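Quick one - first record:
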Amino acid sequence: QVELVESGGGLVQPGGSLRLSCEASGPTFSRPTMGWFRQAPGKEREFVAALRRGFGSPFYADSVKGRFTMSRDNAKNTVFLQMNTLKPEDTAVYLCAAGNAPDYRLYGEYVYWGQGTQVTVSS
């Protein structure tokens, strides 16, 4: 069983930065793909970024490319999402996900989910 625990959300002004963390426990073979999604009120869950084992670079949604950076610390079983130049439209609950996810953009392909952390971008 894989467990995911996110942290690092909060309130930030437009243009500011936040760093989200997702600590994973459980067998690593069950989580070759780690992803970040977000969900705003009344909207569908949206792909943000993903890291796939065997692929060097993360994948990003166009809306965050150049502003967000996903990374991992294998020793700590943790993935991070560094979010810079935040905009009000980035406001959402951010969720960490894990699984095989052949199509990493689809939330339905992830098996394990964290509880989410709220990110609010407002002046």
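second record:
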Amino acid sequence: QVQLVESGGGLVQAGGSLRLSCAASGRTFSDYAVGWFRQAPGKEREFVAAIGWRNGGRYLDDSVKDRFTISTDNAKNMVNLEMKNLKPEDTAVYYCAAGPHIAGTVDMYDYWGQGTQVTVSS
């Protein structure tokens, strides 16, 4: 079992930056790929970014690839999502998830955190 906890959300003005972190307990991330998803009110949960812990392979959605960066912090067993040039349409609850492979769909991930709210004001 893996327990995931997100942190770092908040309120920011358009053009600003935030860093989200996903911490794991129970097991290390070394056996997993870690993804970030987001869900805005009334919308489906959508893929944002993912990283393979062992090989460091990265995959970002086209809507964020020029603004967001995903990375691992091996010492802290955490995955970070650096978000720059935030836009109001980035407003959502952001979730981290762990699964066996880098993937862009919700059903490929086995473990989920509770989410952290990101609000971008115009």
